[in-house]
Amino acid sequence: MYSHKLLKPDGRKLTLYSRYPIASQLEATSPSNEPVQANPHLRWHPLRGEWVAYASHRQGRTFMPPPEYNPLAPTIDPKFPTELPQGKYDVAVFDNRFPSMIPTAKNSPESIVETLPANGACEVVVFTQDARTSLSLLELSHLDLLLKVWGDRTLELGNNPQIQYVLPFENKGVEVGVTLHHPHGQIYAYPFVPPVPARMLSMQQEYYQEHGRGLLQDLIEKEIADNQRIIYQDQDAIAFVPACARYPYEVWIAPIQPVSSFTELTPEQRFGLAKALKTVTLKYDGLWNRPFPYLMSWFQAPTDGLAHPEAHLHAQFYPPYRTSDRLKYLAGTELAAGMFANDALPEEKAKELQAVRVNLRMPVSP
Asked: Looking at the predicted structure, is the pLDDT value of residue 25 above 70?
């Protein structure tokens, strides 16, 4: 993996990543030369016992621009710069212009509830320069690089003592609120372990203390033995519809042998995950022969400097459709009670995805 760090005219950081050497004369670009004016803060929710971020400047973020004004495409006209420069590279990571958290946040406002500066980080990860493609159409070596990038960002962001948890994710499709169609994801680096991964880590810690083995490790072994919901499997990685799926087409991806974070993956595990990632996204897009929306989140260990043998790196996909023309809306039992109700058995949806034929090696045109 090759990387090249640059500083944008507005002071934000940009890192370019590639499978090949990157020309050193590249210059960072930005849609604006004005420094980011943001000072987000956190407020404590006493009934839920969790923090809520407030970032009113995000109301002005870019929303569904036409293709000729795509801010994530490489700059064509220097008079109208985008977020990315021209040049040969594969993946770009830069500080979000409209962050929910920043390292320099300070002086949180007074309130009747506890407040804190939102001292975290928000990065944009542009998967490719090609606006017409998607994860499913990228080469395996490109996806392998993306996994390395997530590891590199985890290491760099996690070295900041303010940061306790690094969460890479992708929102794909207008159905999940995407405002830019160019294939990209984000990384949020939190000053605390957020509620969802905190709950999962708590369950994993309890299981590990009792059994001396990982909870997800044992669940994967049971999924392999049951052999009903597996979407992809090789000796290093697996993708499956979990028996406990909350969404009809939910899929998890994980290395079969547990590692706690991206930084601990072996080359073989990483390439296995690349194949699993391509398989799942190809099957999603092939299910109804159209781009398939989802939220993909990667869960790993906290960046607190401690050993976390209980943690098992994995991705969870949350697709919003329950049938080809019906969305699964989160309603009373999901949002108010926190108990999901699934209208379809995981085994049924797994069979639908298993039936979609894919070829990982075949070049696919966008």
From this structure: yes
Residue with tokens 């028996």: 243
CA distance 14 to 82: 12
Q: Environment class of residue 38 by beta-carbon count within 10 Å: exposed (0-12), middle (13-18) or buried (19+)?
A: buried
Is residue 366 scored above 60 in pLDDT?
no
Choice among 4, 181, 182, 184 that is catalytic: 184
Query: Are residues 323 and 287 in contact, defined by beta-carbon separation less than 8 angstroms?
Result: no
Instruction: Assess whether pLDDT exceeds 80 at residue 281.
Output: yes
Spatial CB neighbours of 274, under 8 Å, sequence gap ≥ 6: 140, 141, 143, 144, 146, 147
CB neighbourhood size of 10 (10 A)? 15
Of 131, 129, 140, the C-alpha closest to 22 is 129
Q: What is d(CA 221, CA 181) in angstroms, rounded to the nearest whole number?
A: 37
Interatomic CA distance for residues 127 and 221, integer angstroms: 32
Q: What is the pTM of this model?
A: 0.95
* Start-to-end CA span in the chain (Å): 25
Residue 63 scores a pLDDT above 60: no
Express each pLDDT in 209-244 by its tens digit. Answer: 999 999 999 999 999 999 999 999 999 999 999 999
184 a catalytic residue: yes
Phi-psi category of residue 87: left, alpha or beta, with phi > 0 → left and psi -120 to 50 → alpha: left
